[in-house]
Amino acid sequence: MDKRMHVARPFVILVAIMATILGAATSAAAAAPKFFSATSTVSGTGALVVSFDERGLGNENIDYTLTADATALYACINGGNKHPQAANKESFPGDVAGGGSFEAKNGRVIANLTAGPISAGAFTCPSGQRLVLASVTYTNIVLTDTTNSVSTSVADASRTFFTV
Q1: Coil/strand/helix, residue 60
Q2: Quick count: other Cβ atoms within 10 Å of Cβ 123?
Q3: Using an 8 Å Cβ cutoff, are 43 and 51 in contact?
Q4: What is the pLDDT of residues 91-124, one digit of tens each?
Q5: Does the model's pTM come out above 0.85?
Q6: Where exactly are the structural domains of the chain?
């Protein structure tokens, strides 16, 4: 056997080992889930809507949960679309939650989740008035990828439908 073959064989083995290590590191970096963005809004029905973009995923289904503290203000509105200056409004604090499962495509999920609003429960209005959601506020909003145990805080959101 030629002396060059003795030198070349260890070099080839070393290159193969390095390529394997580099390939494993690249795969690990590609599978590092991270929320690229997450924003909150309140829909026309008063629901919290969180739009998000998570990257660094495989191509599997990813499960998510959305939680927030909420306060909904319900009021009674008369036929003239006005709120009578009376005590016929009530604030309801509580927690809201939602969830969903989305298929990652090319290592990425771009989706929306909703939660809420809190119900008015047994609160009712006098005859001739209708019950409306006057305003709603969501705080401590957290979006969690439960498949990969990754969470992100999302900015508070609120909306006023009727000034009372």
Answers
A1: coil
A2: 15
A3: no
A4: 999 999 999 999 999 999 999 999 999 999 999 8
A5: no
A6: 1-30, 32-160
